[in-house]
Queue: 2 jobs
Job 1
Amino acid sequence: MSRAVRIRGDEVGKTSRARRIRGDELETERGARAKKRSLAEVHSTSPRSPGQLAVRSSHSHPEILFAIFEPDEAQSGAKQGRVRDVVESAMEESSDPPKPPPYEPYIPDELAADPAILAAFKHAEAKYEEEEVRLAHLFTMDHYWHKPSSCLRIDPRLLPIRELARDAVLLAAKSVILLSSFLENQPLNKCCGLWFQRDDQRKTALVLTSAHLTRKKDPNQWKGQWTGEYHHNAKVIVHLLDNTTTPGQLIYLQEHYEFAIYEVQVDKPVHLPTFNGRVHSGQDVFRLGRDANLDIKITHGNLAYDIPSRHERCHYMYFLRDASTLKLLHDDGGPIIDLEGKVVGLVNNQINETFVPSSILHKCLDFWRRFNCMPRLHLGMTFSPIKFLDPICIERMARKHNIDSGLIVEQVSKESHAEKIGIRKGDVIESFNGKHISTTIELESLLIDICWDHFDQEKKLNTEKDVSLKILDATKLCLRTRNLTAIVSDRGEDIVKGAYPITREEASLMILDS
């Protein structure tokens, strides 16, 4: 399918509720960047940044529908206005008389010694038990023998939010599917996925999932890798919710953010979710996945910002759950939802229980619709936000060095431009292009915006872009400004650790010095 986005919008009223959008080609707008708005609130303009996807009214492609994105500034009511798909029942009313209800037979006391009565009782009892078994296997009765594994049933601490969470899960579950990958007919991986676009005329839909679906090597080895290798030609099967399967065709794979887009043929419209960019630390959320039987799996937890460990990407947020709960095996690529059933992130179980927040997903998908790729700037560094350090450490830094915000440089890639201009581990980056950045997610968002400007100037992938950095040299305790030349790329960024071999000459000198 063509990757050029064609979108179409319903007329916007005074309500802040986002609406379904449809499409025509995006146009190019030059001018100042406007404040971010909801997708359904922007009309007839080209996006100036990936957070400002334009919506243009058109009748040329009214069949294409996209998921709703609600940016951080959007306001929404708790339950009112919730969009639910209404499906009319296709079942016809039966004209057959109802089946007699099963009554349990018994022997009256006065007939207990009659052999004929006893034989008739055994026959009737067998028929009764057979009918009871049949009824027990009705789909409406399986809750009696199916042991509940959902945290919503077994965790009493969730009682105050149980009803809200139940409705949220049931709403979001309509968009959650299971995908399997195979290499030479041998199982490779399983991941979940989310519908996010559909074309009703072509009867196709796009699913967003984790790139781990086709990643090479054992998952236990991924912890020592920055960027994985992928089987782009792996066979992918999509397990639909009606228990049918269909092939998935890879459309795009983003190595750095580690998600992939597959196109799927569908016989009927799929349910598109709502994405919510508003998140806060400690927020109650639920991770959703599907097992091999397509049963939904639910894990309760809380959102958290944290300091990335080595080999963890700077755009990750963290899912904190009760340590006593079992870790899901097949929710990678599934959604993390809030108490309204809106998607706040996509699960990415790389090292810890991490996820890509919807604010980043939003910008990436906008970029892909506009430019057919999802690039970012490769800075050659990783960072720790001062904001997320222990308050004792923050207070000490502020008291002794008058600094309480910024990003601490944790790693500098060997022979990178950052290394060449003198940036070292422990330095603090106070601003990027004059903008003060306090978290790595804010940084990631800025890097995408810079790439948007780069492409808006008709420049391409794998070219250079200068970024002005204000740096606190932690060794010399002085501020300096440097221009960093970064690469615009949609490949995964590897941070190469500085290392060198010990030579015989060096060993001899060390012996002499000692």
Job 2
Amino acid sequence: MAVYRVCVTTGPYLRAGTLDNISVTLVGTCGESPKQLLDRLGRDFAPGSVQKYKVRCSAELGEVLLLRLHKERYAFFPKDSWYCSCVCVTAPDGTHSHFPCYQWIEGYCTLELRPGAAKTICQDSLPLLLDHRKRELQGRQECYRWKVYAPGFPGMIDVSSFEEMETDKKFALTKMLPRADPGDSSGNRYLPGFTMKIDFPSLMHMEPNIRYSATKTASLLFNAIPASLGMKLRGLLDRKGSWKKLDDIRNIFWCHKTVISEYVMEHWCEDPFFGYQYLNGVNPVMLHCLSSLPSKLPITNDMVAPLLGPNTCLQTELERGNIFLADYWILAEAPVHCLNDRPQYVAAPLCLLWLNPQGALVPLAIQLSQTPGPDSPIFLPTDSYWDWLLAKTWVRNSEFLVHENNTHFLCTHLLCEAFAMATLRQLPLCHPIYKLLLPHTRYTLQVNTIARATLLNPEGLVDKVTSVGRQGLLYLMSTALAHFTYTDFCLPDSVRARGVLAIPNYHYRDDGLKIWAAIESFVSEIVGYYYPSDASVQQDSELQAWVGEIFAWAFLGRESSGFPRRLCAPGELVKFLTAIIFNCSAQHAAVNSGQRPLGTYPDEHFTEEAPRRSIAAFQNRLAQISREIRERNQGLELPYTYLDPPLIENSVSI
């Protein structure tokens, strides 16, 4: 008689426990145990509980390869959800096997878990384990299906597949929520008391393992509801007229004042702050250094000589690398929307900036269209105060459209959704890259589904408040993706290609490169542990399917993008993974805001000592970067905190 000791940990989350019967079967190289009901006196699987059991076998099983968890009906109680964190098995000889789970199990089903040691497909040779990988991915691909949202868009998750899944399906455990009213075929309805529509049906079905946790949901509601009600009560959401004075805008932010908002209120109309925002604002990726002026911006030296001063000229400053351009070409053909039956207007500006001898970046000239001529004058700082201020305001309006639609939503949210989808569909739980990327894709599918249901849907918020509306948004994102390259995606390559390595006080660049290097070092250690040679990368069919699916669905198979469709060496894999993790975490924080600390891995998916040491070293590197940033910020009039590691979320989750 061989006795195995089984320790089951239930997650500490709200409603994580279950009343269902839980049984276990151990599968080893020499046989499998009888199915053993895990039952002790009292409730076994309460939230946060750790329960120990014994499984008796007629003989030792050899190396334990799989653990089957069976979830079945108990008496007359209805089925419920159970969040199993992990199971630890101790063999008769004292050997410990750790089986990470960290997922919701719904309905009545059997879930098969492997030991925590990460394995590529090349490292598995037993037919049992190869079959397990295959069945797991087949189940995931059935659950997580691709959908085309609009032509030219990255692929997205098809949430309707969750509604179709049965609750007892393996590897696709889905909770069925109430259906929408069948009388409304579109499901796109007005939110009571508000002027925008919400696509309710798309929010009704969400696979539990990608759904927000109760804590995350409560946090979002706690922040969103008071802000929305406040804007509703102050008349902002229903406003149809123009702003009459700046005090009207200040009244909106009376209860959301920060150091940054107060600084902006005081300095928003000043040229140095206008230039500073290109470096350290929420869209710090627009500037390109010029060696010559483009023909579509016919600026002469005489135009800018009063600002440059007597000791230099425009050509000299171009040769010194001190002239930069922010080009909003993408807006030239963007559809224009109507709001409150009034046509809106969009500019496609060219904004020329100069790095002056004091190290400040200031605007030199602004042309509000892409076509020079009598109808498109060039505005200069020497013009009247209000003309120059109005020109800068139009640039900031264009900046908002490019930032929110492309830099923020397309290049972080939508691309990271495609990375999450490919990871779920092509990499099994035991794969080292799945374990690596899981924290950086958490909640992304949920937040993007919410965004499509509330912001991007017809007559949603984008249609109600922006000058381009939903059609303009679709145009901007599809056009931007068609021009997006691997160089744009990789921060070190991007700053080098844009010629902005030498600009002083570019805190986004400086902090971002430090975080990139920390991520790269961490990823390099993980990849080096599991992929010791070029052949180990090339022969990993799951890895190649993963990168191929990203190329096809995120970048639409466009060879000119420069994104890899196949990986041939560990170095290529390190760069690709570093870019994905950076853009899912730090880049999103830089263009949005932070909430979940980068480098936090609460679920122990890696059980080997080497990757655990790498995680600890990564966390130490991030802590050092944070100390350096905070020390630097003490000497800044306006601290730059967007890329302080404790303020960077692990994933695109808001």
